Amino acid sequence: MLLPHLYIDTVSGKGRGVFTKKAIPGNTVVEISPVIVMSKADRQSLDKTLLHDYIFEWGTLKDKCCMALGLVPMYNHSYKSNCEYFMDFDNDTISVKTVKGIKKGTELTINYNGDWNDPAKLWFEVSK
Questions:
Q1: Within its chain, how far is the Cα of 13 from the centroid?
Q2: 97: nearest Cα among 118, 116, 122
Q3: pTM of whole model > 0.85?
Q4: How far, in Å, CA of 13 to CA of 89, rounded?
């Protein structure tokens, strides 16, 4: 499931990002994406590639990883994100939901730490 008014565009200093052609109310699920679950050994191999920046830790023990399909890998990080994501380990999906209303033309962002308002430092330098 993916809202039809989401699209990819470039963001200065960040590469690509997810935007909306229409306003989106708060507490709206904008995407439910299937994931491909991989083993710890696969994760070690992926960590040596560019895909390292696009995979998620997976499982209750975080002993696996996954690659989300759909637009999920394209959401940029923000410490003041306007969306949050939820992992469903039983159904192998990641859902993205707005935490507040989003205006037309606005970039949709998530906090890569997992919680939409988690200020912990990331593994890379964050653009301002």
A1: 18
A2: 116
A3: yes
A4: 33
Domains of the chain in sequence order:
6-110 (2.170.270.10)
The pLDDT tens digits of the residues spanning 71-83 come to 999 999 888 899 9
Contact criterion met (CB below 8 Å) for 37 and 58: yes
Query: How is 10-70 classified by DSSP, letter by letter?
Result: EETTTEEEEEESS-B-TT-EEEEEEEEEE-HHHHHHHTTSGGGGGEEEESTT--EEEEE-T
β-strands 76-77, 107-110: how paired?
parallel
What is each CA distance from 104 to 19, 84, 108, in whole angstroms?
8, 18, 10
